[in-house]
Q: What sequence folds into this?
């Protein structure tokens, strides 16, 4: 089998399928979650898409990784190197496009399929409250309260865009497709798997979450792996 690969910055399509934890299930879309700055999580993702893609330095420059705002490309390079024949689909939401989305509205920016993907529907109050609290925590309590709903809208937009791109990769390559993204996007309850289940319920999705030091990421996954945490200091120090 061949995979397409997709980071939240890209999707890999058409690679050898990863058997770890699949228990013989042939998934159309495999979503591999991560803590973005944990190298052990990226090694698991690389092992999921084995083979060899050379010259990581040149690839990083071609992708303008340094300007992406993502962690060091050295952590992601093994994933690209593991899939030399994979077709890569970009799936990131650029910051300038995110600003436009907040201005014109997420459904308008997403386009004609916004209603099909549920982006025109209001969230249930309990889910909205949980999402708002997560955004407050993610931004170290430093965001004005009136900006939090927009951050939730952008999270929904990113998940829907990832789902749509994964389905595009599946249709164009025959799959299977691997999505490399954060645990928050990989969660089954409201991440990209939920959008695929909504618009293409016939597509089989396998979602992997990756925790640290025994802590299990929230949201529901088909499998959760654990790795030692990394020393990231105080991530909120710069906002104080």
A:
């Amino acid at each position: 089998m061949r995979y397409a690969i997709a980071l939240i910055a890209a999707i890999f399509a058409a690679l050898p399928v990863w058997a770890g934890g699949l228990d013989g299930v042939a998934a159309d879309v495999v979503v591999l979650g991560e803590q973005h700055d944990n190298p052990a999580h990226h090694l698991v993702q690389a092992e999921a898409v084995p083979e060899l893609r050379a010259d990581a330095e040149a690839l990083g420059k071609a992708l303008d990784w340094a300007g992406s705002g993502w962690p060091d490309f050295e952590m992601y390079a093994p994933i690209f190197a593991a899939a030399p024949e994979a077709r890569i689909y970009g799936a990131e939401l650029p910051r300038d496009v995110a600003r436009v989305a907040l201005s014109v509205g997420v459904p308008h920016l997403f386009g004609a399929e916004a209603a099909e993907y549920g982006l025109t529907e209001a969230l249930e109050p309990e889910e909205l409250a949980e999402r708002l609290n997560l955004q407050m925590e993610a931004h170290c309590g430093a965001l004005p309260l009136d900006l939090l709903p927009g951050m939730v809208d952008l999270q929904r937009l990113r998940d829907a865009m990832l789902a749509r791109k994964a389905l595009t990769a599946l249709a164009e390559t025959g799959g299977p497709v691997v999505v490399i993204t954060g645990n928050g996007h990989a969660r089954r309850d409201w991440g990209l798997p939920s959008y695929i289940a909504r618009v293409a319920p016939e597509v089989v999705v396998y979602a992997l979450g990756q925790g640290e030091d025994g802590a299990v990421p929230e949201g529901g996954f088909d499998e959760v792996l654990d790795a030692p945490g990394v020393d990231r200091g105080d991530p909120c120090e710069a906002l104080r």
Notes: DSSP finds nine helices and seven strands in the chain. The beta strands are 4-7, 11-13, 29-32, 87-89, 177-180, 205-212, 223-227. The first strand starts at residue 4 and ends at 7.
